[in-house]
Description:
With 431 residues, the protein is an alpha+beta fold. It contains 15 helices and twelve strands. It starts with a helix and ends in a 9-residue tail after the last helix. Mean pLDDT is 83; it is low at 1-15, 363-376, 394-407 and 424-431.
Amino acid sequence: MHEKCNSVIALQSSPMSLNALYVDFNSYFASVEQLLQPELRGKPIAVLPVVAETTCCIAASNEAKVFGVKTGTRVSNARKMCPDIVLIEARPATYIEYHHKLVAVVESCTHVERTLSIDEMVCKLTGSQRDKKNALALASRIKQRITEEIGPEIRCSIGIAPNTYLAKVASDMKKPDGCVVIEMKDIPHKLFDLKLRDLIGIGRKMEERLKGRGIRTVQDLYALDRHQLRIVWGSIDGERMYEKLRGIEVDRERHARSSLGHSHVLPPDLRTIEAARSVSHRLLQKACLRLRAQELYAGRIHLRIKFIDRPDWHTEGRFSPTDNTLQLTKALEALFKRLPKHKSLKPYAVGITFSDLTDPAASIQDLFEQPTSTKRSKLDAALDQLNMRYGKNTVYFGGAHNAVNYAPMRIAFNHIPDPDIEGDQPNEGAS
Length: 431
């Protein structure tokens, strides 16, 4: 504890206490669409996973945000907020392509320490870059190079601070196209105008918990000591927040992947139980490919179906750890047998998730499965190789036949897909 206190004193006394530069691209998916489609520039647009009234916006242009449209806004509500809004179906492969181009542009100015999502990256400041004047010049250079090499439609907000956490907070303080610096001398007073929800790591439930304890402002939060924050959070994460708010760079938590899966909003012509079943098989086969690519076994599968005008339905099953598509297909079919039989059911979204993920070398296999496991592994390997070489869906299990052209690649907030593994290419494959 004394060492951490000394480190804070040392940072406060240093004239160059800036260590992190955070780049956050504004309305990224929508901005890429405006870059590639000139007719969309200056117009309010929303990017959707699939064009349907019952789905939600996954991105909104800055022009749409003026009307209150944002990520998570239902399409029907977006139309009411902004009658002139233009709806665009997402193109994940294109966004990934431009993500790599943007990383290369930032890398040409300074080293990108890591990407945190498809539209966020952090750079570590070193040497003279840690001086405020030089850090601001670097931020200006990054913005200029993006404009010159990619296009003015792609804008970013940049935050500069003593640690990655506060740099991220700073990047959110002025959008779009802003640049905010938080120096050690600015802490904590520059944070006091923020709301609790403006701090990363404080969502709706945590905000309710904090307010239940009389903590209503960032100033109230900052007044708590390390031990009190640990009690409020109920874990060491409270102590980590204590350090983050004081500009200390907390070691990255290295969590093992706990789950893996895919979901898909069904277009209107696929809103039947049989179509949902086919799409779920498509999702499962994509997830199996990812399991094997990441050298993981799954021991549990979870199936969720969302219905129009009815509550969501979900169920799960456990089994001996495996990455075998045929075994996992049987597990999925067993789950579908539990689905209530109602003719009026109209599904509009389906998702499957694998969990209880383990390293194959550490997995305990079912003895009764051993005689066929080698043959199944060879079959999966052959299918993967054919699909990687000749295009996705060259060969697939028949359960996905009616949905082979649906459930395309998606981008999660913290996962940038590899198009070679998860991408979709048109082809004339057969089961």
